[in-house]
From TrEMBL:
Residues 146-212 form the Alpha 1,4-glycosyltransferase domain. This is Alpha 1,4-glycosyltransferase conserved region. Keywords: Transferase. GO terms for biological process: mannosyl-inositol phosphorylceramide biosynthetic process. It comes from Flavobacterium succinicans. Signal peptide: none annotated. Pfam families: Gb3_synth, Gly_transf_sug.
Amino acid sequence: MIPKVIHFCWFGGKSKPRLIKDCIRSWKRHLPDYEIIEWNEGNSDLSHPFVKEAYDLKKWAFVSDYIRLKALYDFGGIYLDTDMMVLKPFDSLLINTCFFGAEDSEFISCGIIGAERANWFVKISLNHYDNFQFSKELNLGMHTIPKIITDIFRKEFKYYDNFDEFAKFDNLTIFPPEYFYPLPFSESENVKKYKEYIKSDTLAVHLWNSSWIQYSEYTYLRKGEYKKGFEIVFENIVSEKKISWKYIRKIGSCIKESIKLKKNE
């Protein structure tokens, strides 16, 4: 069983904006018997080389990527991004040994993660960071935690399908988008209308307030943020020194999707 503990990260020392405070209040309202732990500079072990370098560079998102996994591995519980608005109790989730939510059909997101203490999948995810080094040439967009977790999941379970439905292996569950990400990133400008996106299965809504996070090229292109999207595409081509037709087709599909969304506005 996953213990009734909520973990969240807050690095950098800035005061929490109103939306973040509202989200934390929603946790307390719907999860009254859960312990809530804030991980920050005062109680986090920042000695891991990846964390130390990310912290020195003020890459708070990357500090949080590691610390959230470390907290779950050491203590178990449920990690929440600070912009996750909870709508219903989480008790039905506790029977899993580990769970994530998909943000769309292609990517597992990490705005909510649940795990028992010392979970094996969390451990191999942590191990990914042991050989990670920052450099001027490094494309950070290729190393966001959703990409890392999605790649590890597909490799471990040889899973090549999409995430529109439940994906379950060894009591590790990937919930489809409507459970935690009913508001797509491509429509995040409608955050004030998030209630219109809620489905009957929705337990929480990610409000996409973490502007310091770099998302994938696909996410930016679907949203119509072509400059950011193509910057990552260009970096990928340069770093990989090759490009596949499959990659080109995915880029084209995202652009078509963004055009379709704009026509429907």
